[in-house]
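Incident log entry.

Two folding requests arrived from the same account within the same minute. Monitoring flagged them as a possible duplicate submission, but the sequences differ. Recording both here for audit purposes.

Request one:
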Amino acid sequence: MPTIVEIVCCREIPAATEKQPSGCITRNVRFHTLCLDEVVLDVVFHTLQDHGVRVENTR
């Protein structure tokens, strides 16, 4: 059975608002590089796997 994807605003996450007290995290200059760049995501994925963290590849 498919799961429901939950949409959460960054303003609802205390850790996010501590790091960026105002505005949306997607407006942060580093957001697109760190969170959306495929090369960066691939490196993080393999680094986590190398450290024994089980990460699901959804591609």
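Request two (distinct sequence, not a duplicate):
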Amino acid sequence: MAKQKTEYKDKKSNKKADKLDQSLNEPGVTDSKRKEEKIIDDRIDNSKNPFIKSKTLEDFINKLYVDNSIPMRYNDKFKNTSIPKMNRLMIDFFKQPDMVISQTNNIIPFRFYSNDGITLNGLQYISNKTSNKWIISTHDFGQNKYWALFFAKPFIELGYNILSFDFRNHGDNKEEQPITLGQLETIDTKSALEWLVENKHPDYIGLMGVGLGAYTINNLFIENNDLFISSNVKFSVCESTYHSVESLIINQRRKWRYIYETPFVKQTAKRVHKIMKAAKKEEHVDLKENNLLVKLNQKKNTLKYVPFFYTNSSINTLVPAKDSYELIIDREFFKQSENKDKIVIYDFSQSRLIFKDHFKKNMREIIDFENVIIGDDKLTEEVIKSMQLTDEDIAKSGEESNELITFVHQS
């Protein structure tokens, strides 16, 4: 029993070692950094999730929240998010004034219901009143609909109208629901797609997601492939997606230990099984059934093709880039003649920060991908010119000066 209680801790660490990021004890970490991360951890510790019955699952969710919050130095400051606050964040933290959304009189707040009866809050951003092409943009764990809106910036420039929404237990949603890292959240994405089709009758739709949102898009594509096709979903863009909860857990633990050491391998496997078992027993959620690689293999003979674009960073410490590689490889069963999948893996960035570190190149890669599918060369050229996204502009920006080999592959 004592051994189980100390599996997250080093022998010399105190009883709070499993709450505080172990990197705080490493040489070179400043006192201000320790204080910043301690504040985040204390806030989590003092506001436990009453809707999660399992402490094992709750601890994992809380640790994920801490890991997601640390890169966002303005997390507390921007807790009650709005367009003006997000604009300041894009300037002060992202250092990307081109990410600012200046037109705000075209935002329509709305509510809709998920298929299992949860009230969800959303936004409609009308980029072009004469356009009926739409993007559904989904946010990451711990974020909200405003983040999703800002991450859809490439499509705002291309004249798409944007629908973004808060996942259950995120943003302005008040009903207490368990966070399932994709299973129940997929219902939210499905409900948003159905609402959009029923109420706006789009000419065609694109989906965009980051982290958790990206997972739900992949999961929805497999589970409700007919809905993708009947809704005329033309493409999907997925940043920092994971293919399984197991992958998230393993990657989280691998940050602090040498995964190849036998004792840690056994501890990690045990931890994975414990979290999965707790979720199934206490929350009635079978996380193991949501491995996207397994699902793809099971349904590869019945799935109809929709192009996917994956992007991540090789040094992402939260969501491993290997998940994107593995997903795009496992999608190779689609006919080569129709396969237009694309993957871009940067050397340096972190989850949700690719637009911060690689704004121009990321914008260009997404816009080029969209044009391969939609084929509006004139509009694409106009946006590339107006946003200064030519190859020369990207080189002059200096954003890619530290990149060694950015992996880009178009099927």
